[in-house]
Amino acid sequence: MSDASQVLRLENVSVRRGETLVLDRLTLSLGAEVVALVGPSGSGKTTLLRVLLGLEAPTEGSVRIGEQLASKGGRVLVPCEERNVAMVFQDLALWPHLSVRGNLEYGLRARGVKPTTRAERTAQALRWVGLEGKESRRPHELSGGERQRVAIARALVLDPVALLLDEPLGSLDIALKEELLAVFATLFAERQLPVVYVTHDPHEAARIAQRIIVLERGQIAQQGTAAELGHAPATPFVEAFARALRSRDA
Ligand SMILES: Nc1ncnc2c1ncn2[C@@H]1O[C@H](COP(=O)(O)OP(=O)(O)OP(=O)(O)O)[C@@H](O)[C@H]1O
Ligand SMILES: [Mg+2]
Fold first, then answer.
1. Residue 218 has pLDDT above 60, yes or no
2. 165 is a domain residue
3. Which residue in 14, 90, 117, 236 could disulfide with 167, CB within 3.0 to 4.6 Å?
Protein backbone atom coordinates (compact mmCIF):
# COMPACT_ATOMS: atom_id res chain seq x y z
CA MET A 1 0.00 0.00 0.00
CA SER A 2 1.38 3.44 -0.82
CA ASP A 3 0.23 6.97 -0.29
CA ALA A 4 1.32 9.17 -3.21
CA SER A 5 1.49 12.26 -0.98
CA GLN A 6 4.38 10.69 0.94
CA VAL A 7 7.68 11.39 -0.80
CA LEU A 8 10.13 9.82 1.63
CA ARG A 9 9.33 6.60 3.41
CA LEU A 10 11.53 4.67 5.79
CA GLU A 11 10.28 1.35 7.01
CA ASN A 12 11.89 -0.47 9.91
CA VAL A 13 15.25 1.08 9.12
CA SER A 14 18.13 -0.07 11.29
CA VAL A 15 21.77 0.90 10.97
CA ARG A 16 24.29 -1.13 12.91
CA ARG A 17 27.86 0.03 13.41
CA GLY A 18 29.80 -2.63 15.20
CA GLU A 19 28.02 -3.26 18.47
CA THR A 20 25.90 -0.14 18.26
CA LEU A 21 22.46 0.07 16.77
CA VAL A 22 22.60 3.67 15.53
CA LEU A 23 19.11 3.58 14.00
CA ASP A 24 16.73 1.12 15.59
CA ARG A 25 13.77 -0.04 13.45
CA LEU A 26 12.81 3.47 12.46
CA THR A 27 9.60 3.98 10.51
CA LEU A 28 8.92 7.44 9.17
CA SER A 29 6.98 8.93 6.30
CA LEU A 30 7.31 12.49 5.00
CA GLY A 31 5.17 14.46 2.58
CA ALA A 32 5.54 18.10 1.52
CA GLU A 33 6.25 19.45 4.99
CA VAL A 34 9.04 20.89 7.06
CA VAL A 35 10.17 18.57 9.82
CA ALA A 36 12.72 19.45 12.47
CA LEU A 37 14.85 16.55 13.61
CA VAL A 38 16.27 17.01 17.09
CA GLY A 39 17.86 14.76 19.68
CA PRO A 40 20.96 14.28 21.80
CA SER A 41 24.37 14.13 20.19
CA GLY A 42 24.93 10.65 18.81
CA SER A 43 21.21 9.82 18.60
CA GLY A 44 21.46 9.11 14.86
CA LYS A 45 20.27 12.32 13.17
CA THR A 46 23.11 12.64 10.67
CA THR A 47 23.01 8.90 10.05
CA LEU A 48 19.31 9.17 9.18
CA LEU A 49 20.06 11.92 6.64
CA ARG A 50 22.90 9.86 5.14
CA VAL A 51 20.54 6.92 4.70
CA LEU A 52 17.95 9.14 3.00
CA LEU A 53 20.63 10.58 0.77
CA GLY A 54 21.95 7.15 -0.20
CA LEU A 55 25.43 7.68 1.22
CA GLU A 56 24.83 4.79 3.53
CA ALA A 57 22.76 1.62 3.26
CA PRO A 58 20.48 0.64 6.12
CA THR A 59 21.53 -2.66 7.66
CA GLU A 60 17.87 -3.61 7.64
CA GLY A 61 14.63 -2.09 6.39
CA SER A 62 13.77 -0.07 3.32
CA VAL A 63 13.84 3.48 2.00
CA ARG A 64 11.41 4.62 -0.68
CA ILE A 65 11.64 7.87 -2.60
CA GLY A 66 8.35 8.46 -4.33
CA GLU A 67 7.47 5.13 -5.90
CA GLN A 68 11.08 3.97 -6.09
CA LEU A 69 12.61 1.46 -3.72
CA ALA A 70 15.88 3.32 -3.08
CA SER A 71 17.54 1.15 -0.40
CA LYS A 72 16.75 -2.19 1.08
CA GLY A 73 18.34 -4.52 3.62
CA GLY A 74 22.02 -3.64 3.37
CA ARG A 75 21.95 -2.34 -0.19
CA VAL A 76 21.68 1.05 -1.83
CA LEU A 77 19.54 0.37 -4.94
CA VAL A 78 19.31 3.94 -6.23
CA PRO A 79 22.67 5.67 -5.78
CA CYS A 80 23.01 9.09 -4.24
CA GLU A 81 23.54 10.89 -7.57
CA GLU A 82 20.29 9.47 -8.98
CA ARG A 83 18.05 10.29 -6.02
CA ASN A 84 17.72 14.02 -6.51
CA VAL A 85 17.63 14.53 -2.78
CA ALA A 86 19.53 17.71 -1.88
CA MET A 87 21.64 18.15 1.22
CA VAL A 88 23.10 21.14 3.00
CA PHE A 89 25.92 19.99 5.26
CA GLN A 90 26.90 21.71 8.48
CA ASP A 91 30.21 22.82 7.02
CA LEU A 92 28.32 23.74 3.80
CA ALA A 93 30.96 22.00 1.66
CA LEU A 94 31.10 24.77 -0.94
CA TRP A 95 33.78 24.40 -3.59
CA PRO A 96 36.42 26.92 -2.41
CA HIS A 97 38.00 27.37 -5.85
CA LEU A 98 34.71 28.08 -7.62
CA SER A 99 32.76 31.31 -7.71
CA VAL A 100 29.19 31.52 -6.41
CA ARG A 101 28.01 30.93 -9.97
CA GLY A 102 30.41 28.00 -10.37
CA ASN A 103 29.13 26.41 -7.17
CA LEU A 104 25.53 26.69 -8.32
CA GLU A 105 26.20 25.49 -11.85
CA TYR A 106 28.29 22.52 -10.79
CA GLY A 107 25.38 20.13 -10.19
CA LEU A 108 23.47 21.35 -13.25
CA ARG A 109 26.52 20.78 -15.43
CA ALA A 110 26.93 17.28 -14.01
CA ARG A 111 23.37 16.59 -15.10
CA GLY A 112 24.01 17.80 -18.61
CA VAL A 113 21.78 20.88 -18.37
CA LYS A 114 22.40 23.21 -21.34
CA PRO A 115 24.48 26.37 -20.73
CA THR A 116 21.61 28.82 -21.37
CA THR A 117 19.26 26.93 -19.04
CA ARG A 118 22.05 26.65 -16.50
CA ALA A 119 22.56 30.40 -16.52
CA GLU A 120 18.83 31.08 -16.19
CA ARG A 121 18.34 28.68 -13.31
CA THR A 122 21.43 29.94 -11.51
CA ALA A 123 20.28 33.56 -11.83
CA GLN A 124 16.86 32.60 -10.54
CA ALA A 125 18.29 30.72 -7.54
CA LEU A 126 20.48 33.71 -6.68
CA ARG A 127 17.37 35.90 -6.67
CA TRP A 128 15.62 33.47 -4.29
CA VAL A 129 18.32 33.99 -1.69
CA GLY A 130 19.08 37.65 -2.44
CA LEU A 131 22.61 37.17 -3.78
CA GLU A 132 22.28 38.93 -7.11
CA GLY A 133 25.48 40.76 -8.02
CA LYS A 134 27.70 38.44 -5.98
CA GLU A 135 27.93 35.61 -8.51
CA SER A 136 31.64 36.14 -9.24
CA ARG A 137 32.79 35.99 -5.64
CA ARG A 138 34.53 32.97 -4.20
CA PRO A 139 33.27 31.53 -0.89
CA HIS A 140 36.09 33.18 1.11
CA GLU A 141 34.96 36.57 -0.22
CA LEU A 142 31.51 36.16 1.36
CA SER A 143 30.21 36.59 4.90
CA GLY A 144 29.07 33.53 6.87
CA GLY A 145 25.43 34.35 6.20
CA GLU A 146 26.08 34.78 2.48
CA ARG A 147 27.85 31.42 2.32
CA GLN A 148 24.81 29.88 3.97
CA ARG A 149 22.65 31.40 1.24
CA VAL A 150 24.90 29.98 -1.47
CA ALA A 151 24.64 26.52 0.08
CA ILE A 152 20.86 26.60 0.09
CA ALA A 153 20.64 28.08 -3.41
CA ARG A 154 22.97 25.35 -4.65
CA ALA A 155 20.68 22.72 -3.12
CA LEU A 156 17.47 24.21 -4.51
CA VAL A 157 18.74 24.99 -8.00
CA LEU A 158 18.63 21.25 -8.74
CA ASP A 159 14.87 21.22 -8.11
CA PRO A 160 15.21 18.32 -5.65
CA VAL A 161 12.39 16.01 -4.53
CA ALA A 162 13.45 16.58 -0.93
CA LEU A 163 15.84 18.80 1.00
CA LEU A 164 17.92 17.71 3.99
CA LEU A 165 19.77 20.20 6.18
CA ASP A 166 22.19 19.20 8.93
CA GLU A 167 22.52 22.05 11.42
CA PRO A 168 22.84 24.62 8.64
CA LEU A 169 22.90 27.64 10.97
CA GLY A 170 25.00 26.06 13.70
CA SER A 171 27.82 28.56 13.78
CA LEU A 172 25.97 31.85 13.23
CA ASP A 173 24.99 34.52 15.74
CA ILE A 174 21.37 34.96 16.82
CA ALA A 175 20.57 37.98 14.66
CA LEU A 176 21.89 36.29 11.53
CA LYS A 177 20.06 33.08 12.42
CA GLU A 178 16.80 35.00 12.63
CA GLU A 179 17.41 36.63 9.28
CA LEU A 180 18.23 33.35 7.55
CA LEU A 181 15.37 31.47 9.22
CA ALA A 182 13.02 33.99 7.63
CA VAL A 183 14.64 33.41 4.21
CA PHE A 184 14.45 29.62 4.68
CA ALA A 185 10.82 29.71 5.84
CA THR A 186 9.78 31.59 2.69
CA LEU A 187 11.77 29.29 0.39
CA PHE A 188 10.40 26.13 2.01
CA ALA A 189 6.80 27.38 1.89
CA GLU A 190 7.10 28.16 -1.84
CA ARG A 191 8.63 24.79 -2.73
CA GLN A 192 6.16 22.29 -1.30
CA LEU A 193 8.71 19.54 -0.76
CA PRO A 194 9.77 17.49 2.24
CA VAL A 195 12.41 19.32 4.25
CA VAL A 196 14.25 17.61 7.09
CA TYR A 197 15.98 20.19 9.24
CA VAL A 198 18.41 18.95 11.89
CA THR A 199 19.13 21.36 14.70
CA HIS A 200 20.18 21.46 18.35
CA ASP A 201 18.36 24.76 18.88
CA PRO A 202 14.77 24.30 20.18
CA HIS A 203 13.84 27.80 19.11
CA GLU A 204 15.08 27.18 15.57
CA ALA A 205 13.14 23.90 15.41
CA ALA A 206 9.90 25.50 16.56
CA ARG A 207 10.39 28.46 14.23
CA ILE A 208 11.01 26.44 11.07
CA ALA A 209 8.90 23.30 11.40
CA GLN A 210 5.31 22.27 11.92
CA ARG A 211 6.36 18.82 13.14
CA ILE A 212 9.27 18.20 15.48
CA ILE A 213 10.68 14.68 15.60
CA VAL A 214 12.79 13.77 18.60
CA LEU A 215 15.32 11.03 17.98
CA GLU A 216 16.83 9.22 20.95
CA ARG A 217 19.09 6.18 20.64
CA GLY A 218 18.03 5.70 17.04
CA GLN A 219 14.30 5.65 17.75
CA ILE A 220 11.60 8.28 17.57
CA ALA A 221 11.11 9.17 21.23
CA GLN A 222 8.29 11.60 20.47
CA GLN A 223 6.94 13.80 17.68
CA GLY A 224 4.47 16.63 17.39
CA THR A 225 4.21 20.39 17.39
CA ALA A 226 6.29 22.38 19.87
CA ALA A 227 3.12 22.92 21.91
CA GLU A 228 2.35 19.20 21.97
CA LEU A 229 5.87 18.30 23.09
CA GLY A 230 5.72 20.96 25.79
CA HIS A 231 2.34 19.78 27.01
CA ALA A 232 3.25 16.14 27.51
CA PRO A 233 7.00 15.52 27.21
CA ALA A 234 7.64 11.78 26.98
CA THR A 235 11.31 11.78 28.03
CA PRO A 236 13.71 13.92 30.09
CA PHE A 237 15.31 15.13 26.84
CA VAL A 238 11.96 16.37 25.52
CA GLU A 239 11.24 17.99 28.85
CA ALA A 240 14.52 19.92 28.75
CA PHE A 241 13.85 20.84 25.13
CA ALA A 242 10.41 22.24 26.02
CA ARG A 243 11.84 24.10 29.00
CA ALA A 244 14.47 25.76 26.82
CA LEU A 245 11.74 26.80 24.42
CA ARG A 246 9.65 28.36 27.18
CA SER A 247 12.57 30.24 28.72
CA ARG A 248 13.45 31.79 25.38
CA ASP A 249 9.82 32.74 24.69
CA ALA A 250 9.37 34.32 28.11
N1 LIG B 1 31.65 6.86 10.38
C2 LIG B 1 31.27 6.33 11.54
N3 LIG B 1 31.77 5.15 11.96
C4 LIG B 1 31.40 4.60 13.12
N5 LIG B 1 30.50 5.16 13.94
C6 LIG B 1 29.98 6.33 13.60
C7 LIG B 1 30.33 6.98 12.38
N8 LIG B 1 29.64 8.14 12.30
C9 LIG B 1 28.88 8.20 13.41
N10 LIG B 1 29.07 7.12 14.19
C11 LIG B 1 28.38 6.82 15.44
O12 LIG B 1 27.00 6.64 15.15
C13 LIG B 1 26.20 7.22 16.18
C14 LIG B 1 25.23 8.24 15.59
O15 LIG B 1 25.95 9.30 15.02
P16 LIG B 1 25.27 10.50 14.28
O17 LIG B 1 26.36 11.26 13.64
O18 LIG B 1 24.19 10.00 13.41
O19 LIG B 1 24.62 11.31 15.50
P20 LIG B 1 23.94 12.75 15.51
O21 LIG B 1 22.60 12.58 16.13
O22 LIG B 1 24.00 13.37 14.18
O23 LIG B 1 24.87 13.53 16.54
P24 LIG B 1 25.28 15.11 16.58
O25 LIG B 1 24.10 15.81 17.18
O26 LIG B 1 26.46 15.13 17.50
O27 LIG B 1 25.60 15.55 15.20
C28 LIG B 1 27.16 7.78 17.20
O29 LIG B 1 27.30 6.83 18.22
C30 LIG B 1 28.46 7.95 16.45
O31 LIG B 1 29.56 7.81 17.29
MG1 LIG C 1 25.00 15.04 13.40
1. yes
2. no
3. 90
pTM of the entire predicted model:
0.92
Residue 250: is its pLDDT beyond 70?
no
4 lies in the same domain as 79: yes
Beta pairing class for 162-166 and 85-88: parallel
- Domain tally, the chain: 2
Residue to probe by mutation, ligand 1, list 21, 22, 38, most atoms within 8 Å of CB: 22
**Structural domain includes residue 37:** yes
Question: Which structural domain range is residue 40 located in?
Answer: 1-84+178-250
Do 140 and 199 belong together in one domain? Answer: no
**Separation of CA 127 and ligand 1 centre (Å):** 36
Residue 71 CB-half CA count within 13 A? 30
Q: How confident is the model at residue 110 (pLDDT cuts 50, 70, 90)?
A: confident
Question: Are both 197 and 80 inside the same structural domain?
Answer: yes
pLDDT digits 0-9 by tens, 195-206: 999 999 999 999
Q: 22-34, pLDDT tens digit by residue?
A: 999 999 999 999 9
Ligand 1 shell residues, CB under 6 Å: 17, 20, 22, 39, 41-47
pLDDT given for residue 81 in this prediction: 86
